[in-house]
Amino acid sequence: GQNIDQPTEMTATEGAIVQINCTYQTSGFNGLFWYQQHAGEAPTFLSYNVLDGLEEKGRFSSFLSRSKGYSYLLLKELQMKDSASYLCAVRDTGAGSYQLTFGKGTKLSVIP
Amino acid sequence: DTGVSQNPRHKITKRGQNVTFRCDPISEHNRLYWYRQTLGQGPEFLTYFQNEAQLEKSRLLSDRFSAERPKGSFSTLEIQRTEQGDSAMYLCASSPGTAGEKLFFGSGTQLSVL
Fold first, then answer.
1. Cβ–Cβ gap B40/A105 under 8 Å
2. Least CB-CB distance to A41: which of B95, B100, B107?
3. Residue A36 · residue A85 · CB < 8 Å
4. How close does chain B come to A108, measured CA to CA in Å?
5. Which among A30, A69, B70, B87 would be 20 to 30 A from A24, CA to CA?
6. Spatial CB neighbours of A52, under 8 Å, sequence gap ≥ 6
7. Which helix (H) or strand (E) holds B38?
8. Are A87 and A35 in contact (CB under 8 A)?
9. A96 Cα distance to chain centroid
10. Is B86 helix (H, G, I), strand (E, B) or coil?
């Protein structure tokens, strides 16, 4: 089985930097994904990590440490439109290796 | 590329009724997934198809739930004898079947069982 933990809510100021953490416990590991989901909308892909280290994509970066079962999503130069839920998801290596298991999501509120 | 399409967007039904949802994946994607999401929770995996074959089903998927993908293109999810606990957003996603693939989600069908 898999267990994925991330904070329930976070608040940050427009223009600032915020880091959203995710820890996971899995029997196998075949990649970690971050998705953004605005209220009432579909999740949209942000980033993918399968090897240790930092992946940068514009204002968004994602870090992975497989030995620690830990990832974070870093959002820079926050904008009001970044207010959304951020979902951490892990792909296993077992029989269910095609599905993603999602955490409960972190609701980020960006304030002026 | 028109993205993943789901119909209807909203469905209100009475307890005990049957409902069916449709998902049209991105045309070249051979993998299709159904997830369920309730308020404040992440999506929960229900079932997965590769082409027309249903390869995996979650323990969450009771006997009242059935999914099909008859020609390996669109898929339907049917819930029989709906219960109030079935109220949720039902999300469909597709992927191309490549290494490190990401899932592309539809906008979902919001089911309310009264």
1. yes
2. B107
3. yes
4. 12
5. B87
6. A64, A65, A66, A67
7. none
8. yes
9. 20
10. helix
Using a CB-CB distance cutoff of 8 angstroms, which residues of chain A are in contact with residue B25? none
All residues of chain B having their beta carbon less than 8 Å from the beta carbon of residue A35 are 105
Q: Tell me the per-residue pLDDT of B67-89, one tens digit each, with 9 for 90 and over.
A: 999 988 999 999 999 999 999 99
Tokens for B23?
């998902």
Rounded distance between C-alpha atoms, residue A93 and residue A103, angstroms: 18
Distances in whole angstroms, Cα of residue A66 to Cα of each of A31, A52, A53, A90: 9, 6, 9, 11
Look at A43 and B43 and tell me if their CB atoms are within 8 Å. Answer: yes
Q: Residues in chain A, how many?
A: 112
Report the C-alpha gap between B43 and B33 in whole angstroms: 11
What residues contact residue B70 under an 8 Å CB cut-off, 6+ apart? B52
Please determine, for residue B97, whether its predicted confidence score (pLDDT) is greater than 80.
Answer: no
Does residue B48 sit at the A interface (CB-CB below 8 Å)? yes
Q: Looking at the predicted structure, is the pLDDT value of residue A1 above 70? A: no
Query: Tokens 């009001």, residue?
Result: A80
Q: What's the token pair of residue B96?
A: 């191309």
Average pLDDT, chain A: 92
Q: How far from chain centre, in Å, is Cα B16?
A: 20
Residue whose structure tokens are 């994946």: B25
